[in-house]
Structure formats: structure tokens, C-alpha cells
Design a protein that fits this description.
single chain, about 140 residues, alpha+beta, 2 domains, 4 strands, about 45% helix, about 10% strand, globular
């Protein structure tokens, strides 16, 4: 993993050799940020226009939990983890839509809106071979 300094702060870049092309064997495929910081996203787009961005799931979960009653955090946590446990992007999208409906039925509309609007930012890893998913998902990688 390489760290590239940016005006707004450092961001981490992961080079995925198995995804490189013969024309560009050192192509960057993915970068991750610890949060959805617009300044960093725009900085990376300048340096690595072909890179893909994935929002940190831990920070996404925390954002959702801030709109959920304390007594429901555990239940919502299981719901969010179920999205990311799916075997394909399409299945994850379907699960996310079902969870949004469940949250609205439970009168947690702000959390439902946040998931509906932003969950796709946490699903970038599905574009890579599944052998890489765990490393992409791990905050320590």
C-alpha cells in the first residue's frame, strides 16, 4: 500500500497487480479513504483519474448509527453487515433496498435515507475478484 500526500490529508492507495493490464502493469485500481471527504476524493481524482473509490464501511456504519435509537443499534448493525455479506453486487443492492424499506417501516427514516443515498459508496469491492474482497474490506490492509 502506498500513501500519497494530498492538500486535504493523506489517502491510501492499493495497487492490485491481478487487475493490471498489459499496457499499464502498474495501474492503480482502487483507493480508499477513511471517510467520505469531498476534498480528498477530488484530490485523488486529479492524481489517479482511473482509480475507484470505496467509502470506509466503519465510518459509514457510524454515520448510520448516529440516526438510530441506541436500543436499535445492534439490530441495524446486523442489517448493515447482511448487505456486505452478499455474494454479488446485485444481491447487495437488493438487500440494501429491503433494509431501507424495513427501516422506514420502523420509522427510522433518516437512517433509511442515508443508506439509500450512500450504501453504493461501500460496495466498490464487488468490482474486483472475490479473492481480494477481504483485504479491501479490512481497514488495516
Amino acid at each position: 500500500m502506498e500513501t500519497i500526500p494530498a492538500t486535504a490529508g493523506p489517502f491510501r492507495v492499493r495497487r492490485w497487480p491481478s487487475m493490471a493490464t498489459p499496457e499499464n502493469p502498474k495501474r492503480f485500481e482502487l483507493f480508499r479513504l477513511s471517510a467520505a471527504c469531498r476534498g480528498l476524493i477530488e484530490s485523488v481524482a486529479e492524481y489517479l483519474p482511473e482509480a475507484r473509490w470505496q467509502r470506509c464501511m466503519v465510518h459509514f456504519y457510524r454515520n448510520v448509527f448516529s440516526h438510530v435509537p441506541a436500543t436499535k443499534v445492534r439490530e441495524v448493525s446486523h442489517m448493515l453487515k447482511a448487505i456486505h455479506a452478499q455474494e454479488s453486487r446485485e444481491a447487495a443492492d437488493r438487500k440494501a433496498h429491503a433494509i431501507v424499506d424495513d427501516l422506514r417501516a420502523a420509522r427510522m427514516n433518516t437512517a433509511a435515507d442515508l443508506i439509500e443515498r450512500s450504501v453504493s459508496e461501500t460496495l466498490t469491492y464487488y468490482a474486483f475478484p472475490d479473492i481480494h474482497w477481504q483485504k479491501i474490506l479490512s481497514s488495516g490492509s
